[in-house]
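Comment thread on ticket #2218

A.B. wrote:
> Attaching the input chain for the structure job we discussed in standup.
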Amino acid sequence: MFRHLWLAVSCLLSTAVMAAPPIGQYANDFHQLFMQRAAQTKVPGAVYVIVKDDRIIKVGAYGVRVAGTKAAVDANTTFRLASVSKTFAGALTAQAAREGRFSLQDPVSQYVPGLKFRSPAMTAQLKVEHLMAQSAGLSDNAFDDLIEANQTPAQILPKFANINPRCQPGRCYGYQNVLFSQIETVLLKTTGKTYEQLLASRFFAPLQMHTASVGYSGFLASKNRAMPHIRTKRGWAETKVLPTYYRVNPAAGVNASAMDLGKWLIARLGHAPAVLSPAMLHDIHQPRIKTSDNLAGRSFGPYVTTAHYGLGVRIYQFGDNILYFHGGAVRGYRTVLSYSTEKGLGLAVLVNAETDFVSEMAGKFWATMLDGQAAVPLTPSASRQKAQQRQQAVASKKKVVKKAKKPVKKKAVKKKAVKKNAVKKKAVKKVQQKPAVNKP
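C.D. wrote:
> Ran it. Output below, let me know if you need it in another format.
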């Protein structure tokens, strides 16, 4: 699965700041823009939902469920959510923890004894919180290649014993799918119910998310489902639904429609306290680790000053506002779930193709509704100019550092070089004796 949704998006520079329009008015403008851009980019099918406080105020659908057919996408068409699934896992974890089923500070080894790092000390330091907050300390997407090679989590789990986190758990960010999904075992052992049963009874049924499901079989059971598409020389072509990432359901296994996500957004905005209480939402939304992978070069880059990860959700400082967000990407699909509790607004966008269309639409929406800025496309020349400015800034800093350093005598440099070579030789020998990190 793709690690990031926000690659090569050109959507968001503005020259003037103005008051955000009323959402009722902008929803109609957004609908026209959505339909226009969907037609221009020729996506097979796409749908969006806008929520204001406790109401779904607008749903718009474009295109078809399968390219070359007349089966239209509608508000109840089921899509794979990919990593937007993590918002459900994080919420379920917060809910169970508040019930006293476990503590976020419990060691993971208490519930998943088979999960071990090379260092016993590192293993002991891994907490339940670290799974959901992407703060276990591992390099990004550890063992995702094995998921894509059709291995099961049970087959992959022993391989963690060959590696160590690159930092102490809780100290640095590293996006995970296999490790994140170990929360399924924690929940099973503390509730006695499967992950599918928990989502159905705790979220889908009480929120009346009638078309939501979990897993490969759940997706295929939906008659009104959007099939995945990949780009070819002749345009978009239908492709097979791959079951690989359905093996890590907490990370990527939920299926839902735009209407389902509208109800999910209402709950996350605080309007379903019987399902997600204020205390649970506080736990979900608490920044737990700082991230930097969704700033420069992404569609929100011009607006986001800091980014963190909570329990299964990203937290952006978007201008003067906080924006909660998660994107998703698996073969043939792209998804976005985003909301502002301060504004009482939520937006979800789903598309059955591998395209940046969803991020473009979300970027334009929030640039208007949070900053009140007109979403002017970032041209290639402006993008290059922005990159050159960053490079010049870095180069100027290096020059300042070089000028500040005192000249070093040649003899001293030679001695230091000899010592460095000796250290390097020792380091090489040690590396050769140890297994490579993050490689099976």
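A.B. wrote:
> Thanks. Noting for the ticket: Confidence is low (pLDDT under 50) at residues 1-17, 374-391, 397-440.
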